[in-house]
Every structure is written in C-alpha cells, then in structure tokens.
Amino acid sequence: MSAGWNTVESDAGVFTYLIENLGAKNVQFEELIALDAQLLRQQAPVYGVIFLFKYPTGEKPTDVPKDGTFDYAASESLFFAAQTIQNACGTQALLSVLLNKDGDIDIGSQLKEFKDFTGAFPSELRGEALSNSELIRNVHNSFARASPFIDETQRTATEDDDVYHFIAYTPINGQLYELDGLQSAPISHGACTSDEFPEKVIPVLQRRIERYPANEIRFNLLAMVQDQRVRAREVGDQEWLYREEQKRSAWQWENSLRRHNFVGFVSEILKGVVRSKVTAGDSAYERWVEEAKGKTKARIEDRTKKGAANDEVII
C-alpha cells in the first residue's frame, strides 16, 4: 500500500464495512439496480445515496451548476468538505451522508470528535483535515485491492482518460442536497423531507444521467440505509435475518479476497499450464497461445461495443 489514498470499489460490502470500521453502528449500503423510487423506499429508512459516474474531464468549472443551485450558506450549517486529494472521493461521499446524519445514526466517538473538531472550518480546511486523518485514510486503504505494483505518480487527467467520481445526495434541514467535494458549495435541489427523499432524488439522478449519450451505462448507485438485520429482528422475520447474515458473510469473504495478493498464486498456475502445453508437443503450446489471443481480442471488441472502460481512474 502507498502512504496516500488508494482506489476503492463502489461496492455495498466495501462501503458497509468501511463505515463500520470507522465506528458507525447499525448502518449498511444496498446497491440499487434501477432508478425506482418505490425500490428505494423499500430500503427505508434511507439516509442518502452515493452515485458513481464518469466525470466529464473536459468541462470547465462554472459559477452556476447544471442542475440545482449553490447554497453557500449551507456550508456553515452542515458537513461539507472540499476534495483535496485524488482517490478519496468514495470515502468522502459516504462521510458527507454519515456526518450529516449523526442525529439519526450512531457515528461513533472518533467520527464525532472529527466532526466537532472541523465544525468551524471552511470547506477547504475540512477537506485538508479529512485527507490528513490517519484513521480515515487507514480504514479507506484497508479496502483497496492488493497489488504488488504501486504507481506513486500523479498526473492531471485528460479528456481521453476514463475518470470516475463519487458524489452524495441526502436530505438535510428540509432540503435535498448534492454534496460533491469538487464543487464550491453544496447544491440544493429544493425542499425535501426524509420521507420524500426517494421520490425527490430519483428525478435528479435521471436528469444527470440524461446528460450522457444513450449508450453510456457506467453508473453505480448505493443507498445508505439502516442495518437490514435490525429491521428483520424488529419484525421477527427469521428468514430475512438469515439472508442478511449470509450476505454479511459473503461480503466479509469478498473483502478478505480484495486484501490478498494473488500474483504469486496465478504465476504458479500459469507456469504449470505452460509446462503441460510444452511437454504435450505437436505445437500444442503455439495453438493455445493463438487461441488465447483470439479470445482476448473478442472480449476487447465486446467491451468496446458495450462502452466498458479499459483504463479507469477515480478522482
């Protein structure tokens, strides 16, 4: 791991255990497969959503957002931090929801201390404090994929790069806010109570997605909700509780795999396969290589048709 901030996946299991390791209790994330208010409402209570999208690197910043209005005064009454470092946007987005819901969620003593400490800071200084928090950085990096190859270089993304960014939407003080650390202030999308949030946030997300070409499908939406096991226990649904416990076990297994470096394992398998092909004779190795090249070319062409990214960057 580098000493900076590493890329983490937009994954419900990753985000759930990330905030749990930061000290938050009885909260989890659920992936939404459709922009459906009723589907989102089924997860109630919903504290907010985290949206991942391809960032338009060619766009120049403006004084007026494309949707909604900047609410500069809100920066003083809610937690809003400017993003000051690359790769931190996922954790920053989930904290933008979590730290604004400390009245509804037990965020834990360490995050409470961090919020209290940065409460009087301007957004830029809050961003610096977040980026320099050893607790938050270490927990964030513990969910990054293990890799023996660490690129410590920093460069500015160009229009040819596939750059991705996380932002948050959450109802605060009777308003629906978009919290994006790359913007100069919180963006208000109008009046919204917690109960109205599912119906109010879906049109906002739809308008954002409509800015992209029809073949652009690289979006991801995660909802921050109450721990589903708590709800299952409240209603006495043992089957639901069992499913949620199984899901948690699967998430833990997947997260443990992310931390493991499989390069050595894969290398040994590859050596064994190559050895078997070479000893088979009769040009078995050469045919195997050409077949693999053909399959790889077909996969690349298929990914290109579907608009999938070959080289993704998180900002």
Task: Record the SSE blueprint.
Elements: H1 12-21, E1 27-31, H2 37-41, E2 46-54, E3 69-70, H3 74-77, H4 89-98, H5 109-118, H6 123-131, H7 134-141, E4 162-172, E5 175-179, E6 187-191, H8 197-209, E7 220-226, H9 228-235, H10 238-259, H11 263-280, H12 284-306, E8 312-314
Parallel strand pairs: 4-8
Antiparallel strand pairs: 1-7, 2-4, 2-7, 3-6, 4-5, 5-6
Detailed description of the structure:
This protein is an alpha+beta fold. The chain has twelve helices and eight strands. Helix 1 (12-21) crosses helix 10 (238-259) and helix 9 runs antiparallel to helix 10. The longest helix has 23 residues, at 284-306.
Q: Roughly what is the average pLDDT, rounded to an integer?
A: 87
Strand content: 5-15%
Rg on CA atoms, Å = 22 Å
What's the tally of helices?
12
* Structural classification: alpha+beta
Total strands: the figure is: 8
**H/E topology pattern:** HEHEEHHHHHEEEHEHHHHE
Low-confidence stretches: none
Largest sheet: 8 strands, mixed
Shape: globular
Terminal-residue CA separation: 18 Å
The percent of residues in helical segments reads 40-55%
Question: What are the salient characteristics of this protein?
Answer:
about 325 residues, alpha+beta, 8 strands, about 15% strand, globular
